[in-house]
Write a structure and sequence with these properties.
Largest sheet: 5 strands, mixed
Radius of gyration: 12 Å
Number of strands: 7
Oligomer: single chain
Helix content: 10-25%
Number of helices: 1
Strand order of the largest sheet: 2-1-7-4-5
CATH topology: Ubiquitin-like (UB roll)
CATH class: Alpha Beta
Number of domains: 1
Length: 67
């Protein structure tokens, strides 16, 4: 599957993935992140049910605390 993740072309060796499975494949499972699929924010509650399709543009933003 060919995707654009944070502006970079990536090829993943999966036929189908949900957003949650994609995050796990990228080593981000369990982390607090915001995900946008094709310029639409995917609510965290929908990560497990939102399908990622060939050619999708995915943006992933991590939250970093500080002060």
């Amino acid at each position: 599957m060919n995707l654009t993740i944070n502006g970079e072309a990536k090829t993943l060796h999966h036929d189908s993935l949900t957003v949650l499975e994609l995050l796990e494949a990228l080593g981000l499972g369990g982390r607090r992140v915001a995900v946008e699929r094709n310029r639409v924010i995917v609510p965290r509650a929908e990560h497990g049910s939102t399908q990622v399709d060939e050619g999708d543009a995915i943006e992933i933003v991590s939250f970093v605390g500080g002060g």
